[in-house]
Design goal:
mainly alpha
């Protein structure tokens, strides 16, 4: 995924996620049948709630934003480069940290030679200035109301406990290509 702004993120969701929402399964029996067919297995533990995963993996797309004054007050006396900041995706009058997730923030801080003490403060500020899970869910549902179905299936069915096998991944890959016209390297998942 090579996305640089929230509009691009929405376009990505429209092209690669939304085509699959109408066919999501809710019934327990469907997951049992997929397990019987060796397409995957139902794990004892589940994955995180979908909004938590969105926040963790795409944090920069969900910035609340902050003013230059708020940033200055938070980092008073610290030498923090303005190269770490950009205009906020959701409020052009505000700023946000120029990172999309914790990994890109770490790389950016290393590139800008941020001290260890300031790295910790910057990570905390990044978290503090990101929308919470409910706000992320609300924002995505506002953009595309059918996202409510995706959140419901991912958070409240066996979908959150289902782990694909090699067979399930291959079938999912074929379906993904059929729906989007895009191909992916299967060796990422199947060795």
């Amino acid at each position: 995924m090579n996305v640089r702004n929230f509009e691009g993120f929405k376009a990505y969701l429209s092209e690669y996620v939304f085509p699959f929402i109408d066919n999501l399964l809710k019934d327990y029996e469907h997951y049992n049948y997929l397990e019987y067919l060796r397409c995957g297995n139902i794990r004892a533990g589940g994955y995180h709630r979908l909004e938590v995963m969105f926040r963790k993996n795409y944090q920069g797309f969900f910035a609340k934003g902050f003013t230059a004054e708020e940033f200055g007050a938070q980092f008073k006396g610290c030498s923090i480069s303005v190269n770490l900041l950009m205009s906020c995706f959701h409020d052009p009058k505000k700023l946000q940290i120029r990172a999309f997730d914790e990994n890109s923030l770490e790389l950016l801080m290393t590139e800008e030679r941020v001290s260890a003490k300031n790295k910790k403060k910057l990570k905390q500020f990044f978290d503090k200035t990101t929308k919470n899970d409910t706000e992320i869910k609300d924002l995505l549902v506002e953009f595309y109301p059918k996202m409510e179905v995706l959140f419901d299936v991912c958070n409240n069915t066996l979908f959150k406990n289902f782990e694909l096998s090699s067979v399930g991944i291959a079938i999912a890959h074929v379906n993904y290509r059929r729906r989007t016209g895009d191909t992916m390297d299967l060796s990422i998942w199947i060795k």
